[in-house]
Amino acid sequence: MPINVTQASIETPAHALSGTEVLTAFNSRESGLSPHEANAARERFGPNKIPAAKRKPAVIRFLAHFNNVLIYILLVAGMLKAVNRDWVDFWVIIAVAVVNAAIGYIQEGQAEKAISGIRDMLSLHATVLHDGLWQEIDAEYLVPGDVVRFGPGDKIPADIRILTAQRLKIDESMLTGESEPAEKNTDNVGANAGIGDRTNIAHSGTVVTQGNGTGVVYATGANTEIGHIQDLVDSTDDLKTPLTAQLDNLGTRFAQAILGVSLILLFLGRVIHDMAPSSLLSNILSFAVATVPEGLPALVTITLALGVQQMATHNAITRKMGAVETLGAVTTICSDKTGTLTRNEMTALAAITPSARYEISGTGFGRAGDVTPAGPTTDPEGVAELARIISLCNDAVLRENGEMWSVVGEPTEAALAIFSDKQGFDSSGIERTASIPFDSAHKFMAVRVANPGGGTDDVLLKGAPDVLFSRCTTQRAADGEGKVSFDLAFWESQVDSLASQGMRVLAAARCPASSFHTNIEFEDVANSLELVGLIGLIDPPRAEAIEAIAICHEAGIAVKMITGDHVETAKAISRQLNLRPDGEPVAVTGAEIEKMSRSQLAEHVVDIDVFARTSPEHKIRIVDALQSHDQVVAMTGDGANDAPALTRADVGIAMGIKGTEATKEAADMVLADDNFATIEKAVAEGRRIYDNIIKSVVFMLPTSIGQGLIVLFAMIFGWDAPLAPTQILWVNLITAVTLSVALAFEPAEEGIMNRNPRGRKARLLAPWLWIRIMWISVLIAAATMGAYYALNHAGVDTVIARTTAVTVLVVAQMFVLINSRFLYHSSLNLHALTGNNVLWISSGSLLTLHLLFVYAPFMNTLFDSTGLGFAEWGIAVGAALVIFLIVEVIKASQNRFYANKHR
Ligand code: ATP
């Protein structure tokens, strides 16, 4: 592809040009564009955004809502009505189906909008160089000519000609289908090279798996390779979840039951009652239509979508709808420590050299503070060398901002850079020529810089103490003269003393660089390092995490800490977090996990609170072991290597601030604030949403079954029908429009985090809920029929009796809606009338429509209804009240029995 002629005036493809040529083509340079140039380019090239993929046409999306077995029943019934020339019935049935599809269509549209709006919150960031200063910007603002940098886990924000690359590998499978990450370098390639062969290009949307690099942007937005193929990518969000499948299944079984009973009715009507075919058909169709719970299919989508929106307001951004329902079932949360359970506000507190210990004053990113000896001995050269290593082997950028530093980079690195500044080290003018970036898999970082004393270059390292210790053979001599052999016992005792105070400890070491090449290879730092010293940093626990952990324990959810940090540091923090309220936390290290077989780990995993010095692959084993106990596992992650574990977990949770793009992509949910407390809130929200779906089903099914029973009984006993078929259809139509979504808006029921999780194998509707559903169905049917036959018996006109029966049905549904607000609590209090305004809007609309049915002359003609007096209304309200009270008695007795099971 020629370099985007729309974006530059040159025709040669970027991969066939040198980095400098591409920079020149966009009037840029190695120090990047100036902010002014970048703004001007933004005007010219527009935002770095790929236009949204085309959606399926609206008609297709609308028609998809008819593709459900319950709706098929309605449609077949409608067709048969048309054949029978029952036009009013036909139109009402069609109206029920169309209105229902319209509701589903609108709800789904809102759900999709909610989800994609929330996805937009996860905007991609880029680190860009403007006039020699690195800064983070929204990737949308990138322009051709911008110089950017990228590291492990980063998603490439635009099409980029690579300018520098250190051990850079990029996963390009989304473009090339090649599953192995491609090695990248800066060499020119031929103009005809295919995408997979452009080794000097980082393509937009691909993910860095290893190493780091810089490059110049040459194509943005729709002009990128991914922009070209975006049209081919179907980006429609999948709104299907396990719960929708479960409800579809319920719908299918319901439909089968309706067909089965219809056949029995056919037999009864024909053989026993010898009914005329047309009235028999009409009755059977009434039964079928009355019993179809047409609101069921759309219910889950809207409830989950509302939940997704709600969660987003609490900083939990759901990437997959299914996560919402799974969250509600979580039994174990495995959480990272740094930044999630702790504040990630690192402050270096202690520095240790072979012969002295220093204290560092000042807090957080404040600029004030000193490095002073903490004991009788001093080692000014030692601590200065420590500061040099820590400062040069560091990617954080500090910028003065009044009393504070403003920081680009990781808090650990920033805290270390601040320590070096307090120690008075100035890194300006010193350039690194090669590096091995930090990765939580190997847990150290190394850089190559010129030796200040001349001669062979220095390799400077910082990293987890145990990792560096295993590579050290010497240490800086106490008197600063040369080096002496490495004293492992001394250093381990120093690490333990810092770690047991909850400090994160990093070691600093050095060695001469290889003279055989200009890079740093892993073999170059495999042994013979010289240890220079240790730094201890504190990172206090988040107060809200302590509270959230207590709530999780109350809710029957286990919380486990999985960290790359030292076991003593992790244990000290877990004590502060009260991870094990009844005793000392049980901890294992990654090395110990390594020695365990799969079954051994499975045997112990439930009892372990802290997993320390773990690597990303241990996380997969931990998830696996927990899942072997049928646990529903939520797992957090931030590094690129965490992605597989997040995929394996039932709910993969990525960090929004600290997390790499690769992790976010693999996650079901992203925490915008990286905060553990947000997970706990999301679990509570997941439980609320699941409850609301169950509540809606428990409300919807009795309405349908009750109506079905009315037709069924009248037919079986050959009685006069209490409701005309059109009337049943009408009730069906108006309740579907009004009441069916009200319960999706229910706030959480009291004590929602005081019961145990519902568990992996829980059925959608427990048997006791089926019993409740059947009771309510029978009560609604009995009240409606009772009202009709009593009035009929008393000689009241059939039209009045029927209108009263319809009114009983409608008012009873409104009351049952209030019963259904609480699954586990009584609705017999004022609380039942507050907290959900949608409920009142729905009920008000239903009542208005029903008043039309009763009093509007044209409705009277259409539906054979008539105006009612106080007495009839009194019957309706009285009957509904009795149903309400009986349902409350049923709930109370069931809850007494089941409450214990739920606690
Ligand atoms: P988690 O977020 O999972 O709790 P963590 O952030 O403590 O873990 P890692 O980031 O994997 O874990 O860090 C592991 C160890 O590597 C740390 O304890 C520290 O000793 C060392 N380390 C951390 N960051 C750096 C860095 N930037 N450079 C060198 N070493 C580092």
List keywords for this structure.
903 residues, binds adenosine-5'-triphosphate, disordered N terminus, Calcium-transporting ATPase, cytoplasmic transduction domain A, 4 domains, Rossmann fold, 27 strands, elongated, alpha+beta, Calcium-transporting ATPase, transmembrane domain, eight-stranded mixed β-sheet, 29 helices, ten-stranded mixed β-sheet
Folded structure, characterized:
By secondary structure, the protein is of the alpha+beta class. The chain folds into 4 domains: 14-48 and 142-232, Calcium-transporting ATPase, cytoplasmic transduction domain A (Distorted Sandwich); 59-113 and 239-311 and 682-902, Calcium-transporting ATPase, transmembrane domain (Up-down Bundle); 316-342 and 542-674, Rossmann fold; 347-538, Calcium-transporting ATPase, cytoplasmic domain N. It has 29 helices and 27 strands. Strands 10, 11, 12, 15, 16, 17, 18, 19, 20 and 21 form a 10-stranded mixed sheet that branches. The protein has an 8-stranded mixed sheet with strand order 8-27-26-25-9-22-24-23, sandwiched between helices. Strands 1, 2, 3, 4, 5, 6 and 7 form a 7-stranded antiparallel sheet that branches. A hairpin with a 2-residue loop joins strand 13 (397-401) and strand 14. Helix 8 (242-272) runs antiparallel to helix 10 (296-313) and helix 10 (296-313) packs antiparallel against helix 23 (676-716). The longest helix has 41 residues, at 676-716. It starts with 18 loop residues before the first helix and ends with a helix. Adenosine-5'-triphosphate is lined by residues 336-338, 410, 412-413, 438, 440, 443-445, 462-464, 504, 506, 563-566.
